[in-house]
Structure formats: C-alpha cells, structure tokens
Amino acid sequence: MYKIKLIFPYPNYPIARQVPNWLPNWGNFFPVKWGDFQFFINDNTTDYDFLIVFNFLINEEICNCPIENRIFLTAEPSVIQKYSTEFLSQFGHVITCQRDLNHKNKVYFHQGHNWFVGKNYDELINNLLIEKTKPLSIVVSNKQFTDGHKKRFDFVMSLKDHFKSDLDLFGRGINDFEDKWDVLAPYKYSIAIENYVCDDWITEKIYDCYLAHTFPIYYGCPNIEKYFDSNSYELIDIENTNKSIKIIENILSQNNFYEEHLEEIIKAKLHYLNNLNIFPLVCNYIIEKKLSKTHLKTPIRIHPEVVYNKNSKTTFFKIKNKIKNAIKF
C-alpha cells in the first residue's frame, strides 16, 4: 500500500467524497483509498511515500519523501495565478496548463479539479438513469469585472433573449441555487462556458454536465478532444453569437439527439470519475512514471509560495473565497 499525503487548501470542501465507499460524516478527516493507494488529506502525518499539493501550500510542510516523489498541481491559469520558480523547485513534478511556467519537469495535463454537484463518487457511479424533463440550462455569474466577464455575460443574455423560456438561466445574482445538481440533472442540455481558454484547462464547467448525464454545449479548452470524445459535446464560440445560436437550434430541433448521444455522455462521466478525478489522476501518474517508495533520512521543510512571492497571499485568499462562495454545504 502506497501512502500519499494530499494537501488540498479548501478544508470546507469534502474532496474525500470523490473516492468509493466514502461516508458523509467522514468529511476529510479519515484516510481514503483508491486501489493500492491510501490518501491522507490535510493530515499531520509525516509517514507517507508521496506528497501531492493542489494549488497552494498554506503552511510549511515537514517532508520526508524525496523531491521525485513530490507532485504539484496548479489550479488556475497563469492570468489568475503565477508560481515562482523557487516555490516550484521544491517539487519533482508539476502538472499544469500553464505554458509559461518555469519547471524542468512540467507535464501539460488536466489538473484534477473537483466537481461541484452535490453527490459523492458512489452516488454518481451508481446513478444509471436520470430523468430529463427540461431542455436547456446555463449557469453564469453576473460579475463583470473584466472584459472577458462582460463578453460572457453579454453572450449569455443574447442567448436568453433568443431562446426565451427554452433556456433556463442560473447563477449568483441572477437566479441562485443551492446545489448545481438541481440546475443540471433535469436538463438534456446545458451551455458550459469556461472562465478562461487555453489547452489543457478544463474544469467542472464541462464534467459537471457529464456527472448529471447532461449533454454539454461547450466553449473553452481548444484541445478538449484530448480528454473527451467529440461525440460527447458540441462546440460553440462566444465570439460568434449567431453561429452559436444556429448550432443550439439544430440540437434542440432533433427529437432524438440527446438519446443518440447518451452513451457517449455516460462514457465521459465514467472517464472523468475513474481517470481525471484527482485521486485516480495522481495514482495513474505515479504508476506511469514508475515512482517508488523512498524516504529521506533527514526530513526537510517545504515552504509555501508566500515565502518566495509576497503577492501570492492576496491571490490565495481571492481564490479561496471564490471556491467558498461557489458552493454551500
């Protein structure tokens, strides 16, 4: 059994629910397993074979595993969060979408972002039939702090103006909801728009749709086909509203479009749960890289980003508040 310490800097999010056999009263407080790997989440243990850090190291970490057994996963594109070379040099591997990130062993791949529907792994994997009673939804925030925010918001408003009652609009400041499951599961289709566009940057925007057996009409990651079969989604472009409307109209006009694509949707769901979910993602990476159990004779200290980059503390709290506000538990 391999022991992995996972540092996940959002303690209120039950990341442990993303493994089989998890119970709600466990929270993140008990070790969880994925195959031959045992995960200790935000635990004080120093007896582990691998250290995995997602997005941020909040506090100093006493580490007894060598650098080749330390993996860092970025959680934001570089326009939102940058990581110093000094901080990253404490890790032997970096899984990222950031092309300008400076590390000798960076791997461009999905970074294992968590899902936002209020279900655990067992509920999702065993949910074989979800009744669909409505046509189309979209989840969007009303924030317009940047030109990108405004562009997305204007695009969504144009869609709503065109499709009217055929499109249900949800989001903070527009039409609030408690659980994202409730605004995806009843719908055959949902429009999923990433907050940023670059290769290998995919988030819950698309795979929350799959988890709810909802067909995503998607704008975002240019190399999305690297992760999901092209029959499991339809691409639109927020830069071309008229063309996007025609694509959506064509989908809605076909009586059996959803049923004909349901098998691919479920395949995409299973692929995410069993391969792109952070737990199997990390395990598969360790296996593929043939990393082995080794320990340092003398533990060392791993320092948080703020030690090297004084601006990172402000960025961290912005990201933390964004995650905190995105879900209500």
TrEMBL record:
Lineage start: Bacteria, Pseudomonadati, Bacteroidota, Flavobacteriia, Flavobacteriales
InterPro entries in UniProt: Glyco_tran_10_C, Glyco_trans_10, GT10-like_C_sf
GO MF: fucosyltransferase activity
SUPFAM superfamilies in UniProt: UDP-Glycosyltransferase/glycogen phosphorylase
Protein's name in the database: Putative transferase
A Pfam family assignment: Glyco_transf_10
Organism, scientific name: Flavobacterium aquidurense
Keyword Glycoprotein: no
Residue ranges constituting the Fucosyltransferase C-terminal domain according to the UniProt record: 131-263
